[in-house]
Each structure stands twice: as C-alpha cells, then as structure tokens.
Please model this.
Amino acid sequence: MTPRSEFDRRLKAIRAKMETRSLDLLLIYSTPGSLRFGQRGHVMYVSGYEPYFGDTMLLLPRRASLHSLLEIDSADHFSRLATWVDNVKPAGDHIETLQAYLGELGLSKPRIGVVGEYSMSPNLYSRLCEETDAHIEAASNILEEERAVKSEHEIRCMKQAGAIAYKGVQAAAKFARPGVLEAEIVGEIERVCRAAGSEFFPHYTMVTSGRDADHSNLWWRCGRRKLEPGDPWLLDFGTMLEGYCCDVSRPFSLGPPSTRNREVFDVLLESLEAGRKMARPGVPTSEVNAATAEILKRKLDEGVDWQKVGHGVGLEVHEWPFVGYDGIVDDSAYRDVKLEANMVISMEPSIWLPETGDLQVEDQFVVTEEGGQRLSPIPLEIFTCQ
Model:
C-alpha cells in the first residue's frame, strides 16, 4: 500500500501549483479505459482509489482545511483502505455532486481546474461549463507534470516490478522450444509473474516469432503460431506492483542466434546506450530521441527512419514525458520537454529486417546527472532457448 506520507507529499505539491494558478478546486477525473491507453492514474495518484468499474471523480480544494470528496465508480464493494479520503460517495451524477459540494463549502463562483478532461464525454464537459457558476479551465498539466517526476517510493515499486519481470524472462527462455505455441509461452510468463507478485500486466504480453512481417505486425493477435527450430522471437511485456508498471522487451532465439541477428542487436544496444547517456536533467526529450536514431541510421543502411523511441512509465505504462512523440502537434501531452531528475523513461530502439525478424530492446531508466540508470536487472542480451 502507498504510505500516507507519500500522499501528503503529493497533495502539498499539487496545492502549490493550484496556488500559482489561483485555482480554488481541482476536479480530477479518471476513466478505467484500458490499462494501456486509459487514464485511471489521475484519481489513483491523488487518492489511492483505482477506477475499475467506471468513471470516477475527485474534488480537491486548494485549502487543506476543506474536505475533499471522492465519487467512486459503480463498484459494489468498497474498502476504506483504498483511500485516505473520508468523504466517499457512490456513483452518481457528477454535476449534481459538484454543485452540492460547492454549496456545502460555500464556494461561490470558484475557479475550477479540470484534470482528465480528455477522458470526459463531450456532454459531461459541456454540462460542467453550462450548469455550474464557476470559471472552468483545463488543468491536466498539473498532474501530468507532477506524476512525471517520481519519488523514491515510486521508483522502488518499479524496480521491484522489474525484478518480477526478470523471472518471467527466465521462465520464457526455459519454456520455449520447437512446437510450442506463442500463446503457451505467454501463459507460462504470466503464470510465473503472477506467482512472483505481479498484480496485473499493463499491456498485452506480446510473443511474436519468426520472420514474417505480416505476422509480427499483428502482435495483439499473435498466439497460434508454433515455434520452429532456429526461430528468432521477441517478447515485449510488463508487470505491475502497487499499481506501478514495468515495460521491457528482449529478443530470443531457438538455438544460437545468427551472426546477423547478433550484429543488428549490438547496434540496438549502442542506440540504447546513446539514449541512456543523454537522459540527464535539462536535456530535451527530442535530443534523447535524436541520439538513438542517429546510431540506427548510421549503422544500419536499410533506410531506417526511426521515431518515437520511448515514453514515461508510472501508473500508466505510457505516460509523461514522451520521447520522440513531439511530432504529434495537436496534443500538448506529447510536446518536447526538458527532462528532470527522477523522471522515469522507457527507451525501446527496434527494427525489423527480412533476415532477422523483429529485434528490439526496451528498458526503463531513471534520469540522473550521470545519465539514465537502468531499473530492471534483466541482462541486455539475446536469450538463447535450447
């Protein structure tokens, strides 16, 4: 369980940002979505409660002397241990709940910052603006920026998740053999990781084998192919501990990997190392991305045009900051930002070639003055299965 001192630290920092923007109240909204693309993390980060059955709203006043309110989803069962918030209401009409709350606190014409507005339905956001006597503004960046810099507790959780993932990698290397289905390897990995303490898996556990691009490009539907002698195959998966995600990938080979696979993988490692060295406070994410891409383009002459080397990792497997996504210009969440100490980023240089199949290496790094410090203990190698 996340300690109360961790929530106190978060609340203090969030309220300081509210003070800077003269916001009286944050309306923090989360929807479970899928763990890969949803934003369950906003409410969870501040309250400890994880949305699971539906949309959830937390009302956080700037003044610490005023009580907060958590309106949970439609869960039939609720444990008080799930949150520090005392005022918890069952699912209802969010606008009616907000109006009653403002009346109870005597907040007249407040300035309300909305966090998670991108998860709201257009109808709900319109009602929020039209049916409340308040100034409404988007304020998701308050939590996006706060969540991007990790505490010791968060980093420790992700390290432990990485140690669990290593058990899954070892199990995969031991289990894989000719004639085994991709889906059977997935099942063995998840069995071992569950037993080792993983609470969930933050995205599809992807096992893609062989050299057929049409097959590997449908990674979310892979599973029915049987491994053959000499096959290269790729594992991309994650584990979860106390809500915090690990996201890693490693290549495997049934029998010794080919000379070409080793050569290309060494280039990926060089690319990863270039990004790791750049992952320092004050360095823009675009420069980290450029450092990885430069190696790939210079060392591999197959017309590599690599973009989007990585992303932040935390309560979501894809969160802030995004590394190389600044080409998506219509969403400020993907903007080029300068790294800060204790941000955690994933880097995942990869390539597909006809003679190698999918090759990728992915790991998480904590941003430090000396460059990125790797979080997982998984060796940076092609794992050989006999």
User: Anything to note?
Assistant: The first helix runs from residue 4 to 20. The CA atoms of residues 72 and 90 lie 5 Å apart. The two ends are 40 Å apart (CA to CA). The chain has two domains: 4-147, 152-385.
